[in-house]
Amino acid sequence: MTITAEALSAQAAQLPPAERMEVVERILDSLDQPDAALDTLWGHEASDRLAAYRRGEIEAVALSDVIAKYRTAARRT
After folding, report:
1. Helix or strand or coil: residue 48?
2. Helix axes 17-31, 3-13, angle to 10 degrees
3. Per residue in 3-50, pLDDT tens?
4. Cα separations (Å) of 42 from 16, 25, 35, 55?
5. Which residues have C-beta within 8 Å of that of residue 59, sequence separation ≥ 6?
6. How many other C-beta atoms are found inside a 10 Å radius of the C-beta of residue 36?
7. In the chain, what are the domain boundaries?
8. How far apart are CA 28 and CA 34, in angstroms?
């Protein structure tokens, strides 16, 4: 990470949680630009994962389990 990024991260860490989330949302919004190449890669990834699931190589995970996992992790921070 550059010195500028390190400094911004340190400053952001000093903000209250709600303001940190606002900064994160703004950064993510700035990255949310259409990218046909990226969409194609994700399409291939989704197809590969579905094929692996159908071959029995991977199992599905219930959405409620995934949400619970991240809620538990968020409580630890």
Report:
1. helix
2. 140
3. 999 999 999 999 999 999 999 999 999 988 889 999 999 999 999 999
4. 34, 22, 11, 20
5. 53
6. 7
7. 1-33, 34-77
8. 13
- Backbone dihedral region of 56: left (phi > 0), alpha (psi from -120 to 50 degrees) or beta? left
Q: Which two tokens stand for residue 54?
A: 């159908």
9 CB-contact burial (10 Å; exposed 0-12 / middle 13-18 / buried 19+)? exposed
Token pair, residue 16, equals 């209250």
Residue with tokens 């291939």: 44
The first and second tokens of residue 29, run together, are 């919004």
Place of tokens 């400094």: 7
Residue 40, token pair as written in the block: 């194609």
Residue 17, amino acid: P
Q: What is the pLDDT of residue 63?
A: 96
